[in-house]
Predict the 3D structure of the following.
Amino acid sequence: MRRAVCPGSFDPITNGHLDIISRASKLFDEVVVAVGVNKSKNRLFSAEERMQMLRDVCDGYGNVQVDGFDGLLTSFCAERGIHAIVKGLRAVSDFDYELQMAQMNASLADVETVFVPTSPEYSFLASSLVKEVATFGGDVSGLVPPLVHELLVERLAANAEAEGR
Ligand code: PNS
């Protein structure tokens, strides 16, 4: 059984993430989308909310499951018998850091990192940019799945109201 993990923060999932997950699901028998639940980071959506959004948007893929992980990704892989990590590469600028992480992860456990080039139409996409644009009223409806867009707009409006903006 060829099993892989697609790790990330997914705050929130974008169409770029979904493209990588979908392509990984064709390359591997089983794909676990692993949401980093590190509590120290300031997130727009809670780990549970991010996992639920992923479950909803990945529902159509029979071989994709969603889980959370805390601590080292390699520990999660070892616990699950996973030996492949799938990462999307948007541009050369992603490569330096991703290569460093891939090599560190390979030194920690029996895991290979498989880099999948991001589809050109998503090469500028990042959750952080999507949130920034949406915060200032920009239209991000084409950049995230519809249900994520709905939740994003709702959450940003609630935050703005709470902050008296
Ligand atoms: O979506 P992101 O924020 O780019 O995801 C980064 C993530 C969660 C994949 C990465 O930070 C990670 O693997 N964190 C787990 C902690 C860990 O294993 N650190 C050592 C990496 S070499």
Summary: The longest helix spans residues 92-108. The pocket of 4'-phosphopantetheine is lined by residues 7-9, 36, 72-73, 101, 104-105 (CB under 6 Å). Helices lie at 15-27, 47-57, 73-80, 92-108, 127-135, 146-162. The beta strands are 3-8, 30-36, 64-69, 84-89, 112-117.
